[in-house]
Amino acid sequence: MYLPDFDYYAPPDLSEACRLLREFGSRAKILAGGTDLLHKMKHEEFTPEVIISLKNLSALREIRSEPGQDLLIGALATQNEIANSSLLQEKYRSISEAAWNMANNQIRHMGTIGGNIVNAVPSADLPPILIVLGARITLVSTEGERTVPLEEFFLGVHKTVIRDDEILTQVIVPAQTTTGSTYIRFGLRKSGALAIAGVAVAVTMEGEICRSARIVLAAAAPLPLRARQAEQVIVGQRVTPGLLEQAGLAAAQESRPRSSIRGSTEYRRDLIRVLTRRALHKAIQKEHI
Amino acid sequence: MAEVLTDSGQRKYHLINLNVNGDTRTLAVKANALLVNVLRDQLDLTGTKKGCELGDCGSCTVLIDGKPVNSCLVLAVEAEGHEITTIEGVSHNDKLDGLQESFLENAAVQCGYCTPGMILAGKALLTHNPHPSEKEVREAISGNLCRCTGYVNIVKAILAVAEKTAPEEGEQA
Fold first, then answer.
1. Angle, helices A265-285/A241-254, rounded to nearest 10 degrees
2. CA-to-CA distance for A12 and B1, rounded, in angstroms?
3. In terms of residue numbers, what domain contains A65?
4. Which site among B61, B142, B144 would you substitute to test the A interface, given the most A Cβ atoms closer than 10 Å to its Cβ?
5. pLDDT digits (tens, 9 = 90+) for B1-36
6. Which residues of A lie closer than 8 Å to B, measured between beta carbons?
7. Domain spanning B3-89 has what CATH number?
8. Are residues A63 and A162 in the same domain?
9. Collapsed DSSP state (helix, strand, coil) of residue A21
10. Which CATH architecture has domain B98-164?
């Protein structure tokens, strides 16, 4: 299997990358890990005339945080770098676990957090957990930079608010007041299978009372879907097993998954009910993220 | 950035230095050349196999800077500046590596198509974790599909090498 022809640039720094992207616009694609882009180019879903590689932009791989401050994850951090980061394992275990479970080892060594976001596919595993934690992203162009809440980034399948001349450079996760979070997914195999459904949850508990809850569903709509009805079921309430089941039912009802070879609409809905209940249970039990 | 040459048909070739199995090879490759094809067709390193060519099966696994990746999803131009190890670089002076011997001893090879990728995934694991648990072995080869063996003897072969080397002080055997 071969790739169509394209011109290739590997700019030495971000400003040159932005300048090239400005010049070529929609005729160009940004190459990070390549696990999604090259796959789609083999099927001619994408046929860019120009590839702009970010391989020389090693500053965009960094994962760092100051105590009490935001956590910054460079867009080029690979899934394995996120899964194995001691900083994330300590303070944001739900993000590192989501990265660990999303793909096999070979893909995790190449695939990046930026790619998982920008490709904007409904089954992507990192956006839901990042959205429930209130993440923002930085988009840079020759005009300057802007910060967008990740929740407002997605418009549909392969559709986002990113402009043709913008590059995603980092993910910002704010210091948390939530008490627990998790992302759980179901795929047909443990390894190397896309999520048929996934549920991310972040909660703030005060004793047995749920003070706040954010729930975001993967593969449940054309974009990561905030399950607001399900959130309303549990916020302000004393948590009981029956209440979690009700929240699961609400999430299933407001989801709108498509039928595909991997799972029918009905099957995915029922998965969302079960996964929402389990994810809430897990996030409520956890003392910290 | 690598030098770009243009031929009479206006095709562009990138002059790259690839470090493969310890040797530096200078090559002219088109931007769309995939690492797996350059290894097999230009460098005659046909031990690296092509299976699904979509990053699912792991038969094209090579190590880049010691990490297993699917060479069907890597551009050759992107691999410049990194150390690449293929199955041909695992044995030295015509003597099989301990892990390769272990695959033979434990009958971990049937048709053999997945074997180069399995051995490289196993090598990468054992290099940074010389005494893995069975679960860690299974996780390490989870990106490599085998349709013959049911994986039992492959897992056994990797664990057998781990048992042969003495655990370091303070490490649990």
1. 140
2. 8
3. 59-173
4. B142
5. 578 999 999 999 999 999 999 999 999 999 999 999
6. 1-10, 12, 31, 34-35, 38-39, 42, 51, 53, 55, 80, 104-107, 109-110, 190-192
7. 3.10.20.30
8. yes
9. helix
10. Orthogonal Bundle (1.10)
